[in-house]
Amino acid sequence: MSEEKSAVPAWEQRFRAARVSLPDWAEEAPDRALYVSNATGAYEVYAWDRATGTHRQVTDRPNGTTDAELSPDGAWIWWFDDHDGDEFGVWRRQPFAGGPDEEAVPGLAASYSAGLALGRDGTVVVGRSTDEDGTTLHLRRPGAAEPVEIYRHEEYGGVGDLSHDATLLAIDHTEHGDAMHSAIRVVRLTGDGIETVAELDEVTGRDEPRGVACLGFAPVEGDTRLLVAHQRTGRWEPMIWDVATGAETALPLRDEQGRELPGDVSAQWRPGAAALLVEHEYEARSELFTYDLADGRLTRLETPRGTVGGATARPDGTVEYLWSSAAEPSAVRSTAGTVVLRAPGPVPPGSVPVEDVWVDGPGGRVHALVQRPRTGGPGPYPTVFEVHGGPTHHDSDSFAAGPAAWLDHGFAVVRVNYRGSTGYGQAWTDALHERVGLIELEDIAAVREWAVSSGLADPQRLVLTGGSWGGYLTLLGLGVQPDSWSLGVAAVPVADYHTAYADEMEALKSLDRTLFGGTPEEVPERFTASSPLTYVEQVRVPVYISAGVNDPRCPIRQIENYVERLEQLDKPHEVYRYDAGHGSLVVEERIRQLRLEIDFVRRHLGIPDGGAGAAG
Questions:
Q1: 57 near 40, Cβ under 8 Å?
Q2: Which residues are CB-contacts of 246 (< 8 A; sequence separation ≥ 6)?
Q3: Could you tell me if 239 and 184 are in contact, meaning their C-beta atoms sit under 8 angstroms apart?
Q4: Dist. CA 368–CA 445, nearest whole Å
Q5: b/e string for 406-432 if b means 16 or more Cβ within 10 A?
Q6: What is the DSSP string of 450-486?
Q7: Helix and strand totals (H; E) in the chain
Q8: How far apart are CA 479 and CA 462, in angstroms?
Q9: Using one digit for the tens of pLDDT, what is the confidence trace for 470-499?
Q10: pLDDT in tens, 243-260
Q11: Which helix (H) or strand (E) element contains residue 25?
């Protein structure tokens, strides 16, 4: 290894190492596939002809591209063209083999995307979301010059799926006003219009709302079965709904020992629709099964312990999946025992395995994932509490370059799956209401107390950090729990909730109305109680904030309001603004941001530069 290469710290090598997403393949041309990779230094879309083994970069934009889809015949690559990460744009397409891009659906103005469905016969349904129109769906039939609007509602919704023969469309919607629990409407496409065929609504008129979500129509001509995820049992699990007859088929998912699978369960049709590929998620890890619809047998597919970041069942009977663990980088594997796709270049250095910790919190046992640095003795360590975003998301036993970088610099890392996180049942996720932010901080505080009392964390060197919702909880925690933290590092946060609501994209307005029980005009006291700006006077430690100037989710104006108040109060702080949206798809920009964060923390905690190590 050359001196130049060996001088690159391991944490930077992890970011720069090329990686790939799970390939999507065309239904009628399974040798044609798409994936996303950062091989050129920014995340872009790639086409892969599996028959010839050739790979081709499809998109090439300064701030990267990730949203793309193949037409069922594999002839066209559709990709979403926004402006510098603002998520507001139009669909374009280009031939699979390469060629000029063209506007995919002329006549539709730019918007936020609310889904896309491409039919085998050329039928297209495009979902749009704007502040002015709410959600609209647009149908373009084969040969038609212009799309026609077939659905409109002020609440957020989107395209679910087209049936195999493109006669039925499933729409996920929240017309009832509860953005956390969607309903499904199935409509028949009639010429340039629609007629309702069936409704599945577990929210309206119920004291305990249950969500349902479209997982996809059976991939068989004339088949009216729709695979649906539901929360009727207090967790996500699949069932089959025949929209023509109304028949519902429960799926008793029990393992080979007859035990019911705990946690959340999802599924997708296997080719031919005689079986399902089942994805089971429980306590920050996941596994795969095949479910035979004829005999109800559930068979586990062998995958290593860790996290499956996506899976797809191929026509030849194999299953391909993206797998990683906290210690081992990701790769696209097959149940045939091979690595299907690995990014070019060196494999990034591994990291430290996670430990599972359960702590009693005010709302029940809280699950945390803990990693200790390889060097530095038994502790206590300077410790980073890295808070996940979402909020309806969770930290998992999967590979992440950010936590690994802190470990390389001698920090312990703690990640908390607070109330609001997914994977622990509906009650845990739905607990996040009205006292938004404050509930999550109670769970983080319980884990913080354990971290200090157990000897893991040095109470004088505790860093609260996170991005998006994690950035929001960071700023809120610095004000609500001012004696608990030594520093705060917030990326793309909500900082002033009243202004954030005014400026954010409509889909998030809908979520906020659900979380708070109304708008800022209707329940101003709740928005005020949950806004970091309310508590800025109580912040006692230095604050670092990074923000994307084109961010539609945590817009820049509300961050500037918070920063201005920090300046007025003469609170120590640093701000980094970058020209992108809700995070960056450019590798060097991600490295630059983390380097600035690490430098900020080291300076303020008095930790010398060292311990990051170069791989060699």
A1: yes
A2: 198
A3: no
A4: 12
A5: bbbbbbbbbbbbbbbbbbbbbebbbbb
A6: HHHHTTSEEEEEEEEEEETHHHHHHHHHHHHSTTT-S
A7: 11, 36
A8: 15
A9: 999 999 999 999 999 999 999 999 999 999
A10: 999 999 999 998 878 888
A11: strand 24-26
